[in-house]
Design a protein that fits this description.
Two copies of one chain form a homodimer. The first copy, chain A, is mainly alpha-helical and about 200 residues long. Helices cover about 70% and strands about 0% of the residues of chain A. Chain A is built from nine helices and no strands. The first copy, chain A, is elongated. Chains A and B meet through helix 8 and helix 9 of A and helix 8 and helix 9 of B. Chain A binds a DNA duplex (30 and 30 nucleotides) through helix 3.
Chain lengths: ~200, ~200
DNA sequence: TACTTTTGCCTAACAGCGTTAGGTAAAGTA
DNA sequence: TACTTTACCTAACGCTGTTAGGCAAAAGTA
C-alpha cells in the first residue's frame, strides 16, 4: 500500500484524536471491542503511531479512568453545594453518584468494575482521595451531632460507598428490575444509613 | 509430530479432566490466563478435542459459574440452619456470604463481577433464585414482627444483597484496608440493616 | 473375511489481538 | 551539500478463540 497523503488529516493533536476516537468506540460498542488496531484504522494511521503517543493500551484506558474520576469529583462537589444540612448533603451525594453511574456507564465500569491492575490505591488516582475527603465531611458532621460521636468516620464512609456501589453493580446484574425500584432501594438504604449515623 | 500414544492417558472422562485442569489454572493464575490452548496442552490433547466436549470457552466458564452458585446456596443454607432467630439468621447469612467471597474469590469474581454476557437473569442460573428465596425468608419474618410491616421484602432483600456485594467489591478496590476493618464495616452495615427492619 | 461407517484425534489454518523491530522518505539543520 | 531528526510505514512475533479437513484405527455390517 502506498503511504497515505496526510494533507487530508487534521493536523490537530493526534493524541487527542486517538482519545476521542477510542472514546467513541467505547460508547458505541463497549470496552471489550476497543482495540489498538481499530483505533489506528479509525484515525487513519498505522498501528505503531498509536505507540508514539501512548506507552500501551492500558495507558489509554488509564487516561479515561482519570477523566472519570475527575468528572465524578466535580459532580459530587456540585451536588454537595446545593445543600447545607449534612444529612441533605449525603442524600445529594448519593443522588449524584447514582446519576453519574447511570449517565456514564462506561466511566463507572472502568473505574470500579474492570479491575484496573496495579491501580487499586489512591496513589494511582489522586482524585479518589478527593472523593473520599468530600464524602467524609458531612458524615463526620453528622456523627459529631449524633448519638454515637465515637463512631469511626472512615468506617462509615466505607459503608456508605459500599452501599452505593453495591446497589449500582447489582442493578446491572438484575436486568429485570425497573429503574424506579432500584432508585427506591437506594433511597431506602441511604435513609437507613443516615438514621444510623444520627 | 507423531500421534500421541494415549495409553498413558487416564481413560477417565476427558470432560472432567478438562474442567479440573481449567479450574487449577484459574486458581493458580486467575481468570485472564485461562485459555483453550493451555487447557489442551495440560490435558495432553489437541485443541479441537476441547471443542468436542464444550461448545466454546464460555461454556466452560459457565459450568464453573453454576458450580459457584450451587456452593454459595449450600453454604447459605447451612449458615441459616445454625440460627433460629430471623435477625441471627440474617447475620449468619451475611457471614457465610462474606466467607464465601473470601474463600472462593475465583467463583465470586466469575459470578458477580465478570459480567457474564446474556446471563444476568435467574433463568440462566436457577440457583440464584434459591439464594433469593432463602435470604428473603428471615427478612420477611423480621418485617412482619417489626414496626414497618408494610415494607417490601423484595426491596429489602435487594438492599441487603447490594450492601454485601458492595462491601466485598469495594474491599478488592482498597487493597490497603485490613481484613479486620472490612469485617467491622460489614458487621456495622448488617446491624444497621437489621435495626432498620425491626 | 471384506467393506463401510463411525470414532478419535490430528495438523493447519483464519481472523483477531497487543506489541515491536527495522526501514523509507521527507524535513530541518550545519 | 551532508547529516540528523521526524514522521510514518510494513511486516513480523507470539498470543488468543474457533474451525475446516484429513488420517488411521476401531466398530459395525454384508
Amino acid at each position: 500500500m502506498s503511504p497515505v497523503k496526510h494533507s487530508i488529516r487534521e493536523k490537530g493533536d493526534i493524541r487527542a484524536r486517538i482519545l476521542a476516537t477510542a472514546w467513541q468506540m467505547v460508547k458505541e460498542e463497549g470496552w471489550p471491542s476497543l482495540s489498538i488496531r481499530r483505533i489506528a484504522e479509525a484515525v487513519d494511521y498505522s498501528v505503531p503511531v498509536i505507540y508514539d503517543h501512548f506507552e500501551n493500551k492500558e495507558a489509554i484506558v488509564l487516561e479515561f479512568a482519570r477523566q472519570g474520576f475527575q468528572l465524578l469529583s466535580k459532580n459530587i462537589q456540585k451536588a454537595m453545594e446545593k445543600a447545607t444540612e449534612p444529612a441533605e448533603q449525603i442524600r445529594a451525594i448519593a443522588d449524584a453518584y447514582w446519576k453519574f453511574a447511570s449517565k456514564h456507564k462506561e466511566y463507572y465500569q472502568l473505574m470500579f468494575s474492570m479491575g484496573m491492575p496495579g491501580c487499586e490505591l489512591e496513589k494511582c488516582f489522586p482524585e479518589r482521595a478527593d472523593f473520599r475527603v468530600m464524602v467524609m465531611k458531612p458524615i463526620t458532621a453528622l456523627i459529631e451531632k449524633g448519638e454515637h460521636p465515637n463512631d469511626n468516620p472512615f468506617l462509615k464512609y466505607f459503608t456508605f460507598w459500599s452501599t452505593l456501589h453495591g446497589l449500582i453493580s447489582i442493578r446491572s446484574l438484575n436486568g429485570v428490575v425497573s429503574e424506579e425500584v432500584n432508585k427506591m432501594v437506594m433511597d431506602d438504604a441511604v435513609n437507613g444509613f443516615i438514621k444510623n449515623l444520627g
